[in-house]
Specification:
four-stranded antiparallel sheet, alpha+beta, disordered C terminus, single chain, 13% strand, 3 domains, Serine Threonine Protein Phosphatase 5, Tetratricopeptide repeat, Immunoglobulin-like, 56% helix
């Protein structure tokens, strides 16, 4: 047979396959009889829904029939109903299910492949592969064991892969175009290495730096010189004012003398204060060096004192 089957032909073929299959006729058991009865009921519901163009209800009823009595033609009826409704993702999924039914006649397989070829350019395909012990959730759906192959609407999708042994999760964001196939290869992540313990040495407490006597002497002298320079500075200003009021040789000599003394004492104060600071800094450095040398130097000639042995 060439071309696609008509909906009526597929419906009749599926109906007689489910109800009058030789396998079930040759195995008259209570369970098989109940399955045939349930399949007959849902098949009639599917026919009625298809006739009134309620394709979603027809597809759902055909799928229920195929789950009760698996047959490729019943899945193809469901795929055709989804096509009529414009749901190409579900149509492709039902074509996959039809191709997955064993011992299907060649012409039925060709029909399933043809319908799938029509649907695939309109859907995205995602495959998640990995070793045993991993599951995946696609867009918040239920967990499924790997490997997984899903037909999806084109666009972005979120895949959460879980390693069952460690419950560690990997999240993948994928964007799949219509007609494209995206594959995610899952590999076990290496176990995180134990955190390294970093040995830290607590530095010994620093002893408070004491000010040496020489610094105190220098600072005291500097303070005295600075005070004297301040007094002389006032005298220098007065001498300058006297010279400006009455410029004579005497007032000029007095001004120059006071200015020289002021500068001399001020310079001496600066030098004395600087010497005190230098002595303080140098004495602290020498003391630290000595402490370091003493702490690192081994004890020479030390012996454990003799102790009598007690029995």
């Amino acid at each position: 047979m060439r071309g696609s089957r008509s909906p009526a032909a597929l419906l009749v073929l599926a109906f007689y396959t489910c109800i009058a299959a030789p396998t079930f006729a040759q195995t008259p058991g209570a369970r098989e009889a109940d399955s045939r009865a349930a399949a007959s009921e849902t098949f009639r519901e599917a026919q009625a829904a298809f006739a009134r163009r309620d394709f979603a209800a027809a597809a759902a009823a055909f799928e229920q029939t195929a789950r009760t009595l698996p047959h490729a033609t019943t899945w193809l009826n469901a795929a055709e109903a989804w096509e009529k409704r414009g749901d190409w993702v579900r149509a492709a999924e039902d074509c996959d299910r039809a191709l997955g039914v064993p011992d299907t006649a060649p012409e039925i397989r060709r029909e399933a492949e043809r319908r799938l070829a029509v649907a695939l350019p309109r859907v995205a395909t995602l495959e998640v592969r990995g070793p045993r012990g991993f599951t995946a959730r696609i867009d918040g759906s239920a967990e499924e064991a790997l490997p997984i192959k899903r037909r999806l609407p084109p666009g972005p999708h979120r895949v959460v892969v879980t390693e069952l042994r460690t419950t560690r999760e990997q999240t993948h964001q994928v964007l799949i175009d219509a007609g494209a196939t995206r594959t995610i290869e899952v590999s076990p992540e290496a176990s995180p290495a134990a955190p390294r313990q970093i040995e830290t040495t607590t530095p010994p407490p620093r002893e408070a730096r004491s000010v040496p006597t020489a610094s105190w002497i220098a600072w005291g002298a500097g303070g005295a010189l600075a005070a004297t320079a301040g007094v002389l500075g006032v005298q220098t200003l007065n001498a300058k004012a006297a010279y400006e009021d009455g410029p004579t040789q005497k007032t000029l000599d007095t001004f120059r003398r006071d200015r020289l003394l002021t500068n001399t004492f001020a310079g001496g104060a600066i030098v004395a204060l600087g010497v005190g600071v230098v002595v303080w800094l140098v004495s602290g450095t020498n003391r630290s060096d000595r402490a370091g040398r003493f702490a690192a130097a081994p004890l020479v000639g030390f012996e454990e004192p003799w102790r009598p042995t007690t029995r």
